Amino acid sequence: MTANLGEIGIWQRANSLDAAVAAEVERLGYGTIWIGGSPPADLALAEELLDATSTITVATGIVNMWTADAATVARSYHRVAERHPGRFLLGVGIGHPEAIREYRKPYDTIVAYLDALDEGGVPVEDRMLAALGPKVLALSAERTAGAHPYLTTPEHTREAREILGEGPLLAPEHKVVVETDPARARRIARPAIRTPYLGLVNYRRNLRRLGWTEDDLADGGSDRLVDALGLHGEPQDIAAGVRAHLTAGADHVCVQVLSADGDPLPGYRALAEVLC
């Protein structure tokens, strides 16, 4: 792979990212900024964040195949990569059926989109694929630099590494709350887990595959599930949970800080002392 992700990155939605945030995250020592949600095909925010920094990698997590035309994405990729060689990673994914009215044959759509990126000259080593289930994980190893799973646990990471084998990149996302009071931490984490993810078939299927029950998935998620998907505690406790992904076979973990006031930077500052 061209870009160096480092072991730990941050994952935030576009509305929480700007040039000032990017510059501080780079100073804190994180390796990658992941632009969450469905950034548009022009990749303008990625370019803005790269312009504001000098060493950190920027990745999309993920460009949605249903809403971003592959040919346009490919042209945008070349613009960004030429301006910032070796610092941009294009993450793409299929999204989920509930969000797309004309959602159809997801696997075939992924293959066709990757074919279009090939035609547009986007190198395999500079793109990643959002993947949860075995079939798409295997495809990510064949057609991209590797897999970017979302809303997972180290148990999923261990299984994903077995499917990917040695070599392909594995970069899971994990939500965290820098809060020592469990009840307060769950009040922050549960809404971000419940809506929309516990209502989406692909995430529910993946969690069931990992052994979680319908009772765990009901009513916004059991405390046990919320604690697993939204790590909380002292920074060193959270760091141990994040690093469990690395022990399980991840190359990189992108940490999504959740906070009561919507400002993730204090959490990233606290975690940088033990993660970076």
Structure description:
There is one protein chain. The protein has 276 residues and is α/β, with parallel strands linked by helices. The protein has helices at residues 19-28, 44-51, 70-83, 106-119, 134-143, 154-164, 182-194, 201-209, 214-217, 223-229, 235-248, 265-275, and strands at residues 8-13, 32-36, 57-61, 63-64, 88-93, 127-129, 146-147, 169-170, 173-177, 230-232, 253-257. The protein has a domain at 8-172 and 249-275: Luciferase-like domain (TIM Barrel). Helices cover 45% and strands 16% of the residues. Strands 1, 2, 3, 4, 5, 6, 9, 10 and 11 form a 9-stranded parallel beta sheet that branches. A two-stranded parallel sheet has the order 7-8. It is globular and about 50 Å long. The mean pLDDT is 95. GO terms for molecular function: oxidoreductase activity, acting on paired donors, with incorporation or reduction of molecular oxygen.
Itemize the secondary structure elements and their pairings.
Layout: E1 8-13, H1 19-28, E2 32-36, H2 44-51, E3 57-61, E4 63-64, H3 70-83, E5 88-93, H4 106-119, E6 127-129, H5 134-143, E7 146-147, H6 154-164, E8 169-170, E9 173-177, H7 182-194, H8 201-209, H9 214-217, H10 223-229, E10 230-232, H11 235-248, E11 253-257, H12 265-275
Parallel strand pairs: 1-2, 1-11, 2-3, 3-5, 4-5, 5-6, 7-8, 9-10, 9-11
Helix pairs in contact: 3-4, 6-11, 7-10, 11-12
